[in-house]
Amino acid sequence: MKKLYSILIILFCLMILFQSCSKQSSQEMIAPVSPNIINAKISPNQAYVFNVSSLGNVAIEKQASHYKLSNTTADAKTGHIVYQYLPTQDYTGTDEVVLSSKTTIISAGSSGGCSSGHSDNLVSTKYISTSYTTIRLIISK
Fold this sequence. Notes:
The protein starts with a helix and ends with a strand. The strands form two sheets. Strands 1, 2, 4, 7 and 8 form a five-stranded mixed sheet that branches. A three-stranded antiparallel sheet has the order 3-6-5, with no helix packed on it. The longest helix is centred in the first third of the chain and has 19 residues, at 2-20. By secondary structure, it is an alpha/beta fold. It is elongated. Helices cover 16% and strands 51% of the residues. The model is unreliable at 22-28 (pLDDT under 50).
């Protein structure tokens, strides 16, 4: 019985030791950015197009509710990435879509955290910045 407790205590101590040397948490920090809100007014059955090329890699975080078309695509004329929205047939009211854009910033710095003999003095730290753009659409005549 004492042998079982000794093994469990040793395993627990090893788990704590290995967890303290994990570099995952210091290398991937998430830095949120405050949201950008765009209010747009369109007529029923009218398309709305918003240039999102400056935002980088954009994804739809929350899809619109009353759409016939709601996506990001490359504009055929300019090649820029745009968000396109077309409401369902004859819909009037409000709709909302949330776009997200993630930017990765990698910087070099000195290692910290683990003092169990690791000799790597320089580590790269990856910061992920996520920005959100909310487009509020008012569809009325």
